[in-house]
Amino acid sequence: MTNSSFTVSQELVIENPEPCKGLPISHYEWSTLKTKVELFRKKKSFMDSCGWKDVGMVFLGVTLTTLVSLWLPGYSSFYVKAIAWAVLGVSAFLWFCFVFFQYQLDKKDSEKDIITADSILEIMGLIEINRASLNASDK
């Protein structure tokens, strides 16, 4: 048998992090921050992924198709033209309602996100002030 020397080496470099001050946070403050951050989560549903605006675009397609078919010759009776105009009016109204509804939802969500972010920053500022006053009183 042959005596062979087997050597394994591994270099490990650990850098010391810069020292910084860590402040404890109470369970109540942590829970409050966690609750506010959870408000940023978007609940996923079919209508959130598809969107009311997309349903409205279907009605826009119906509206434009009906409008084009009214311009083309082929509707001879008044009864058929009246039905086409009714379909045009209802589909245009539904298109407007769905797009407007989606716009209002998006506006509400963006306002909620701004309010939530502001409230989180406010809570964090209060925690910092509270910890600073506690540290000043300890000295």
Walkthrough of the structure:
- It is a single chain.
- The protein has a domain at 51-138.
- Helix content is 71%, strand content 0%.
- The chain has 4 helices and no strands.
- It has helices at 27-38, 46-50, 52-71, 78-138.
- Helix 1 (27-38) runs antiparallel to helix 4 (78-138) and helix 3 (52-71) packs antiparallel against helix 4 (78-138).
- The model has no long low-confidence stretch (mean pLDDT 77).
Features:
4 helices; single chain; 139 residues; mainly alpha
Question: Concise description?
Answer:
The chain is mostly helical and 139 residues long. The protein contains 4 helices and no strands. The model has no long low-confidence stretch (mean pLDDT 77).
Write the layout of secondary structure elements.
Elements: H1 27-38, H2 46-50, H3 52-71, H4 78-138
Helix pairs in contact: 1-4, 3-4
Number of strands: 0
Low-confidence stretches: none
**What about the largest sheet?**
none
Mean pLDDT: 77
User: Looking at the structure, what is the overall shape?
Assistant: elongated
Helix content: over 70%
The gyration radius over C-alpha positions equals 32 Å
Strand share of the residues?
under 5%
